[in-house]
Amino acid sequence: MKYKEIFRKVRAASQQLLQIEDAQLNEVLNLLADAVIRDTAFILEENKKDLERMDPAHPKYDRLMLTEDRLEGIATDIRNVATLPSPVGRILSESVRPNGMKLTKVTVPFGVIGIIYEARPNVSLDVFSLCLKSGNACILKGGSDAEYSNRAILRVIHQVLGEAGIDPAIVELLPVEREATAALLHAEGYVDLIIPRGSSNLIQYVRQNASIPVIETGAGICHTYFDKDGDLQKGAAIINNAKTRRVSVCNALDCVVIHKDRIQDLPALCRELIQSNVVIYADAPALKALQGNYPQELLKSSTPASYGTEWMDYVLSVKTVEDIEEAIGHISEHSSRHSECIITENVENAELFRKIVDAACVYTNVSTAFTDGAQFGLGAEIGISTQKLHARGPMALEELTSYKWIIEGDGQIRNK
Questions:
Q1: For a surface tag, which of 9, 58, 137, 153 has the fewest beta carbons within 10 Å of its beta carbon?
Q2: pLDDT tens-digit series, residues 111-142
Q3: pLDDT (0 to 100) of residue 375
């Protein structure tokens, strides 16, 4: 019953959002960005409590950690969202029927969005800024790993909303208990959409148990195929960046697929990875090429389990293929449909890869690290959708709206 009361408050508060002009929402977002900077010490102090409960070697530790620089980046993203045009009230189409009836298809907010996420406190601010700008209320369900951080962030958000005269209930944080997750997944009549962000296990649990619509985001098993006609210098830089920039994020590289005719170039492609102590699980041809050219203690023979794994760590698998068709086949079998890349100077192979590979983001000669709402010019993001219904790829403002039909007439009635 206690959860229903929270849901009811958020639903009621969401109605107020529909009456607030975009200029005021932008002002609130800029005030929030200022507050994040002003309250950095408080947020980091609470974040430290979460960090102290987690082993620094845990793959989620980097996602959990907030720093002064990261908070400054988050504040910048919030300000960027404020500069974007409102996605609400946009006319998608207009027509007049023969009987004089006017039809207008116009964008509207979903209403109330539930977000379930793990050890990523930055999500609290990203989600709120996008939901506010798009006219949606939101219910946050963070994991216990980030409990102190999320509470601190919500306190800052509520303070800003209160000072702006907006009902703070447009965003609420549920308790960390598992029963709160179950309640949110069955909040029919109160919540319009659920978006999970986290591991594949979390996403599968939400998909299998929710009784309200779900958009799947997050899980990223990402490949980079080094083609027969790949440029070695580009390839080495892209592979190193995609793997080591931030290993715990969903756009990080998990598997290098390499054409057999370029296997002699594998040591050069992997050379920069040595500085980050990346462990490589290689198949027989790749292992043979790397032995003596890569630290032995970082080399392991691959197994079937080495492929189709989202490592979220300084770990990489390597698969050798006969041709581009086999490369595409391997990716199709093991991909999570998130981000896939081909490194090639062959225009025909690049076009084939782009056409056949089924993923939200398909790259040619570019690091998969760019799969990010801010990098796509969308401001912040609410997640990377790996499904095909409604939204695909980075979900930002546009993807947080639906539409409705407005019908205007002058007494028309239907006779048949």
A1: 58
A2: 999 999 988 899 999 999 999 999 999 999 99
A3: 87
What single letter denotes the amino acid at residue 221? I
CA distance 14 to 191: 11
DSSP state of 4: H
Dig out the tokens for 57 from the structure. 């070697």
What pLDDT shows up at residue 81? 92
For residue 118, the model assigns a pLDDT of: 84
Closest CA to 114 of 148, 142, 88, 134: 142
> Residue 314 corresponds to which tokens in the numbers above?
């300084």
Residue 301: HSE in the Cβ half-sphere, 13 Å Cα cutoff: 3
Sheet strands (E) in 288-334 = 299-301, 315-321
Structure tokens at 318: 């390597």
- State how far the Cα of 183 lies from the Cα of 394, in Å rounded to an integer: 27
For 280-317, the pLDDT digits (tens) are 999 999 999 999 999 999 999 999 999 999 998 999 99
The model carries a pTM of 0.83
For the chain, how many residues are written?
416
Residue 281: what are its φ and ψ, rounded to 5°?
-100, 105
Whole-number average pLDDT of the chain: 93
Of the candidates 36, 117, 32, which has an alpha carbon nearest to the alpha carbon of residue 69? Answer: 36
CA 125 to chain centre: 13
Q: What distance in Å separates the CA atoms of residue 296 and residue 282, rounded to the nearest whole number?
A: 12
Q: Are 389 and 195 in contact (CB under 8 A)?
A: no
Other beta carbons within 10 Å of 165: 10
What is the C-alpha to C-alpha distance for residues 40 and 211, in angstroms, rounded to an integer?
38
Residue 239 has which token pair?
């592979």
pLDDT of residue 411: 92
* Residues contacting residue 358 through CB under 8 Å, at least 6 positions apart: 332, 335, 337
| 279-282 and 401-408 beta bridge pairing | unpaired
> Please, are residues 90 and 404 in contact by the beta-carbon 8 Å criterion?
no
For 259, other C-beta atoms within 10 Å of its C-beta total 22
